Amino acid sequence: MSWPGDVIGRDGELGYVAALLAQLADGPAAVVFAGEPGIGKTTVLLAAAERARAASAVVLSAHPVEAEAELGFAALADLLAPVVDELLPALPEPQRHALAVVLLLEEPGRPLDQRAVCAATLSGLRMAAARGPVVLAIDDLQWLDASSARVLDFALRRLGGLPVGVVACERAGAGNPPADRAAGVRLDLGRALPAGRCARHVLGPLSLGALQQVLKRELGRSFPHRTLARIARVAGGNPFYALELARCLPEDLPGAADLTLPEDLRRVVEDRLAGLPGRTREALLLAAVAASPTVELVRSAASPGTTPEDPIEAAVAAGIVTLEGAQVRFAHPLFAAGLYSSASPGQRRLAHRRLVPLITGIEEQARHRALGAEGPEEGVAGALDAAAEHARRRGAPEVAADLAEHARVLTSLQRSPDRQRRTIKAAEYRFHAGQLRHGRELLLAVLAEEPEGLVRAGALRLLGEIHYNEDSFDKAVAALQQALGHAGDDRGLRLTIELSLTFAMVSRADFAGAADHAGRALALADLGADPASVAEALAVAAMAGCLLGHGIDQAKVETALRLEDPFHQVPALVRPSLIAAHLALYEGRLGRCEQLLLPLRERILEQGEEGELPVVSYALGWSACWRGDLELAGAYAQEAIETAARIESDSLRCQVLGFAAVTSAYRGETALTKARAGEAIALAARTGYGLAVRWASWALAILALSQDDPLAADAALAPLAAPFETHIPEPILAFFVPDEIEALIGLGRLDRAAGLTEAFEEAAGRHRRPWALMRAARCRALLLAARGDGEGAAAKAGEAVGRCAGLELAIESARTLLVAGQIERRQRRKTVAAGYLRRAQDAFEQMGAALWAERARTELARVGLRRSAPAQLTSSEQRVAELAAAGRTNREVAAQLFISPKTVEANLARIYRKVGVRSRAELGAQLATTRFIGSQPPQT
Hints:
The protein is mostly helical.
């Protein structure tokens, strides 16, 4: 049914379209028109597209049908068809190739990461929107194929303020996907766009006047008011139903004739199709089962006729289909559904078989072979295996999963090994498609039938990976350990399981177990056969060794980076570049950490690997936080949280919330910190992600200390610090211990504080970690001050300040200045104390650490000195200060500046007074953050 020209009776709906176009000036927006079949949704959609074009918008359209719902990227291909020739050359190579593959313009080659398609689509929308408004017009949203839905969801969430609109139609009650489609792949525009940017309107019945106009235009007939009212009543104001009823009414309709519409709309459709010749119905069934029916395809597949009448022309004349160029389109999707449902199973199978030799696409051809099979056929199942792998390689795991399940069904029960292998393969495709629950159910079916052996090992290995991505590291470890018991001598399988176990053990803070499995993985790795796996085994072994206190094996790290394959599909935390970045972070080499992570993040964004992004974002956030760039750290934390929410993984959300709480704690965001930490701790109890508890508890302690509340800080950290009272294997494992020491000293529990201080000092010295040595000196200064040794405390605080020189941990350096200022104030050295405290206050304020800045401000007020103009050094004094801070002796400074050593000594005494320091080390730390020449204020 086609309604050209003005839309009848839908002024309100067109008002929604006008509002949408106006909204695009402020960013993305959408309107969804819902209603029963035939109510006029498509008509409104077409009118919306016309109005968008009239407003100079680029319109990209897709009209999904049920037959395409199982095909990969069918709707995406329709949407991008008008711009693909312009788009592809402008994309980065990974995105260009990925998009060309999924649009069947190129062969996959190496396995294609499906998420690169997401990034390519987003790039395309950004390019188009940079020139003006873009409107996506999508009919029958409920039939949108899963691959396209996933890509569009990814892109729409990341449009920012670009003028991209969506006008979509869906059947009323389509709030859930059809029962035969997996959950989690439906495009939910209300969730994809910002709050308040998606309107939904249910189309109601047309008025009598509007119905009369529709019938007049379509049938060339007018009906008496009484007849029209009866048609409207029985049809419920649905224009399609009304037309079908009116079309069959005789011109001399008796006034008392009974008009009834069958409860099941299929009967109305069948009544309409009943008068068609058998050959025409056969041709229409072929069109209904084909994904993209053309005139030539349908004619070639149809059986030879005994009459000259063309079946397609007869269907066009009957108003069942229309022709758009060579394409055959049903006037309404109900006709296609009615034809398919009314056909017998044998007729359906025959239709699919007739299409097989005429289809060239490997995936569609395999699907028709599957649906045309009358029972298990190993040849068909093998073809489906190949088609499923083809779909996976072009980034359509949902399609691959459907094809693999067809292969499983068509495998004879007598071929149990093949059936089980195909079941596991289908589960793996479901896993990569994000359909974890479905994948788990398939694996449990295998495990119920396979008591032992490699098949069971493979199923348990995948089940373990599903568990740690979905809900529980404890369940993951249990499944993976069972998998090892059944893996036998299969070296490759054992290596994969050992790497997964290492990752799971680290995540639940079992570092000894992680080291054990990392060592086994390294022993299994074969450089000649699989360099990428060797790289990963070396990297996880280096990480495990570090966490056990054996130091960082830089040779392993560098070899792993050299052998790394960035395209190897492994969990993010076993990627060598990510592990090397974490190890650099543990050493306090923040620049090196970011040097490794920023290219990795860029590659992830370019290829659309969304699931990998949070673990990179939170590591970058940790580095930015320690560096003192709290605004950037907050942005990384938010990026990680939002991405984890889209993936809907409890374990990943637990992980990123734990560290995000640290960032908000340093920023002084009390309510946000407590909310994030509380949720992370609750999720950790459910998922077994032990590391998140450390971060969340540390965040609560940082917040408490910034508010001068040692009792709350100790409550958060005491359980975590207990294992480290006598020995700390690696300082990074006890990164929170200095804060527990500060809390204990504040509570007067000095003996326990002393034990922890000794343990932390020993670990810092053993591993020669500059950041840990600085924090250890700060703790010792606090402890000496609490025991009444003011001079010893001041000297140790001065040492701690001196160790800040060259450190990249600006936030911790500022806290050390605060402690040094407090100690000097108690020694009544007001000028020196004020110097430390002003520097701390300036640093905290610049970083955005509001509560810490307030603490420094309060301490400075206790000193009782007014804040004078910034210290000013002459050019010659600045030069003396720089050389002295660099470690030159007085004699060496004198020789370089052509002055006497006594003059150097006098200058240094004057410089110390001006700047407020007492030693060369303190002077070096001060010069690292402040310039004293002229009248410029200190720049921290």
